[in-house]
Every structure is written in structure tokens, then in C-alpha cells.
Design brief:
The complex is a heterodimer of chains A (185) and B (231).
Chain A lengths: L35 E9 L10 E5 L21 E5 L5 E7 L4 E2 L5 E2 L2 E7 L7 E6 L8 H4 L3 H7 L2 E4 L5 E4 L2 E2 L12
Parallel strand pairs in A: 1-10, 1-11
Antiparallel strand pairs in A: 1-4, 2-3, 2-7, 5-6, 7-8, 9-10
Chain B lengths: L25 H4 L11 H4 L16 E2 L2 E2 L4 E9 L10 E5 L25 E5 L5 E7 L4 E2 L7 E2 L2 E7 L7 E6 L10 H4 L4 H5 L4 E2 L10 E8 L11
Parallel strand pairs in B: 3-12
Antiparallel strand pairs in B: 1-2, 3-6, 4-5, 4-9, 7-8, 9-10, 11-12
The chains are: A mainly beta (185), B mainly beta (231).
């Protein structure tokens, strides 16, 4: 019997802090292979105002493009998943590594990327987007098909974190005026 | 192969629109036109979680006794679009107490706090796809800075299924509550049948005799069984 997926409803402002563990924003441990980075940015609304108490979730491959739970050879130090509640200024940050190019599932490769789900009070359904690591020379048909404006938003910028570690910065703009491109469900 | 999974388009009206009348905040967050979904290995894989302790499924056992309110026992059954149970799905649940007050710093409303009630729970679906929670029926509460909008009693539910695309956050409601028809968030789901599916289903067979009312809820996540690819 085919069943219709349950309707989404907004996260609301009261998602319990008790769900959040200290290592939730740790996608890869310090022992993971690959280039270690802080993945960070701000979650903003249409007017550029901060969105606080937003839940940002990231799913990514290890440095060889393998996914935890799917490929037995995947790096055990890369959980692949992390989540972070945005602070009062909309900031989020993850400790991770730059993923390798991963399989599309078919014959082609995808440029290194982070899959992102965004939840917030006032967002009736979550928003799904991607953040791409800069500097990859992989021919990626999806990325190549984007407008320059969309590509600029989805490509992270290289920077430095507060601790001096290399950072990838990518802000997530909600709203319908040039915001971060997102995918239908 | 995970890549053989079929994801049908979601039926019209079965999901809320991002922009919802009567809920002002949605207009500053709603995305514009969206791109067609990606269904690569990235989306068809996802995280796995460890089993939370059983105590996390009991929200009413306080240090000084039972929480105040109508005790309810909820059996959440997690399935995919083919009605297959989803063992290992992580369910998180959070809600207000019987007075409509959350244990959360953002809730600044003056309302009674119940020290014996814990406003959150979590559990992993068993082989039948089920997680059981013992809690109370939450109270209604007013939404600040609105013209008299009160949220109907509801319980927030978050689910991590088998893949990144099966992720769901929703709210479940109590059938027949008069506030349901006035709630912008519930009414933001256009199809009445889809709203009906957000109602808890009374079922005395899952209650506790002379102690807790029983309810069932089927949580249907994105995803279908692997099917052979056509040539």
C-alpha cells in the first residue's frame, strides 16, 4: 500500500537544548583523514536579519568521497553528520574535513559538497540546499548548470576560524529575494 | 542498491506552503522558486544513531512523583511510503506541560512550571518501527505578538529515517480540539486529509488501564522500496 508522507510542520522556537550533545557539531574527529576545516556561516532571513534557534544539519562524505553506513571502507573518524543550533546572531559552526568527490550513484562524480537541511521557527517545511567546497576541478553537471549568482552563493569561501584553523564560510540566506538556492523535496 | 529507490512527487496540498496566511514570520523565511530535487548517493544515504536509554521515553516520572496532567501513552510507528517499518529511526519529541509552558529559555510566559515533567523525549524505532512514549496532554498557549492566536495542544516530533531525504519535523495534534481549526500552522497544510493525518488516533489497546489514555500515530517518511530499474 502506497502511503503519503506525513506533512511537515515548523520546528518552532522551543526545540529542546537537551537534544544537543557537545559533539553534535563534530562531523569528523581530529583523527580523520583529510583537510580539517571549520565549516561556518550565518543563517539569515530575507532582510538579512539573524535567524536564531535555527537547526542546521549537514551530511557529507569522507575525504575519499565515501559515506558512513553505506561504504564499509568509509573513514570511521568521519560520522558524516552534524547539527548545530544557531546562536542569537544566527551563527553556526561545524568541525569537519573537506569531503572528497563522491559518486552520483551513477557513473559520474560530484564535486566535493555538504548536503544541508535547515529548520527554523516560521519555516513551515525544512529547506534543503548544498554548500560546495571551493577549488575543486571535478566536472559537476549540476554545479556547472547553475547561474553565476547561484554558484556564488553555494560555493563556500576560504577563510580562518577564531582558532586560526582553516575555515570554509557559507552564509545561508532564507527568503525569496536572491536567497540561497534550495531544492524541492 | 539505494540508488534504485523511487521518490514520487509529493501529492499537491499534502505539505504546507512555505508562505502561510496568518503566520507573519513565514514571509521572511519562505524560499523563492526551488530547483528540482537531487537524488544522488548523497541524498540516499544518511546518519545512524545510537539507542537512547529507556528513561528518555518517559516524560512524566519526576523526582517528586508523576507530572501533572492527563497521562497519555503514544505509540509512534515509523514507516516509509511502502508502509514498511523503519527500525533504527531516531524520534525526538518535545512539548509544553499541562499549563502550556515549555522548559525552554525562549518561553518567557508567566505560567506554572511542573518540576516533575520533562518536556522532551527520544527513542529509536524497534523492529516493528515503533517507539513508545509516556507523557501528558500538553496545554494550549498563546503566540506572543499576535492578535489572540493560541496554539492548540500539540506535540513536536522529529524523525531521522534511513536517508538524508527521509528527514521530517512535524507536529501532532489531538482530534476534536476546537483550537485546531483556528491554528495557522496546522491550517497551513492545504489538504484536509493531510491535516487529518496529523491527528493522534485514540486507541485504548495501547493505553495503560485506568492510568493513561492510549494514542497511535503513524509517521510516514520519504522513501520507497528498491525496485528493479527499467531498461
Amino acid at each position: 500500500m502506497a502511503r503519503i508522507p506525513t506533512a511537515s510542520q515548523t520546528l518552532g522556537p522551543f526545540y529542546s537544548y537537551e537534544f544537543m550533545r557537545d559533539d553534535d557539531p563534530v562531523i569528523a574527529t581530529t583523527k580523520a583523514a583529510g583537510q580539517h576545516v571549520t565549516l561556518k556561516g550565518r543563517l539569515m532571513d530575507k532582510n538579512g536579519g539573524p535567524v536564531r534557534e535555527g537547526l542546521i544539519e549537514v551530511w557529507q562524505a569522507d575525504s575519499d568521497g565515501r559515506y558512513a553506513g553505506q561504504d564499509p571502507a568509509a573513514d570511521p573518524e568521519v560520522r558524516g553528520f552534524g547539527r548545530c543550533l544557531t546562536d542569537i546572531e544566527g551563527n553556526f559552526a561545524f568541525q569537519t574535513i573537506i569531503p572528497g568527490a563522491s559518486s552520483s550513484g551513477g557513473n559520474s562524480l560530484q564535486a566535493p559538497h555538504f548536503a544541508v537541511n535547515v529548520f527554523a521557527s516560521g519555516l513551515m517545511r525544512h529547506v534543503t540546499t548544498r554548500i560546495y567546497a571551493p577549488g575543486s576541478d571535478i566536472a559537476d553537471s549540476f554545479l556547472d548548470g547553475l547561474s553565476d549568482a547561484a554558484k556564488t552563493v553555494m560555493l563556500a569561501r576560504s577563510g580562518r576560524g577564531a582558532d586560526g584553523q582553516q575555515a570554509l564560510e557559507a552564509d545561508i540566506w532564507l527568503g525569496d529575494e536572491g536567497g540561497t538556492p534550495s531544492f524541492e523535496e | 542498491m539505494t540508488t534504485d529507490k523511487i521518490y514520487d512527487p509529493l501529492p499537491e496540498g499534502s505539505q504546507p506552503k512555505y508562505k502561510t496566511a496568518g503566520y507573519r514570520r513565514t514571509s521572511t523565511l519562505a524560499p523563492g522558486e526551488q530547483m528540482p530535487p537531487l537524488r544522488t548517493l548523497t541524498e540516499l544515504t544518511g546518519p545512524h544513531f545510537e539507542t537512547p536509554p529507556p528513561v528518555d521515553q518517559n516524560l512524566v516520572a519526576g523526582v517528586d512523583g508523576l507530572a501533572i496532567g492527563q497521562l497519555i501513552r503514544i505509540v509512534v510507528r515509523v514507516v516509509d511510503e511502502d508502509d514498511r517499518p523503519q527500525p533504527g529511526a531516531l524520534i525526538e519529541l518535545w512539548q509544553a506541560n499541562a499549563a502550556g509552558k515549555y522548559q525552554h529559555p525562549v518561553d518567557q510566559r508567566k505560567a506554572p512550571i511542573d518540576g516533575n515533567f520533562r518536556s522532551w523525549g527520544r527513542g529509536l524505532a524497534d523492529d516493528k518501527g515503533e517507539v513508545v512514549f509516556l507523557t501528558i496532554r500538553p496545554g494550549a498557549y498563546p503566540v506572543p505578538n499576535t492578535d489572540g492566536w493560541w496554539r492548540p495542544p500539540h506535540i513536536h516530533v522529529s524523525a531521522y529515517g534511513s536517508s538524508f531525504v527521509s528527514r521530517l519535523v512535524t507536529q501532532v495534534y489531538f482530534p476534536g480540539d476546537p483550537l485546531n481549526d483556528l491554528d495557522a500552522i496546522l491550517q497551513g497544510v492545504p489538504d484536509p486529509k493531510a491535516r487529518e493525518r496529523l491527528m493522534l488516533v485514540p486507541d485504548e489497546s495501547v493505553g495503560l488501564h485506568e492510568e493513561a489514555l492510549g494514542y497511535r500515530f503513524d509517521l510516514v517518511l520519504r522513501g520507497r522500496a528498491a525496485t528493479p530499474l527499467e531498461n
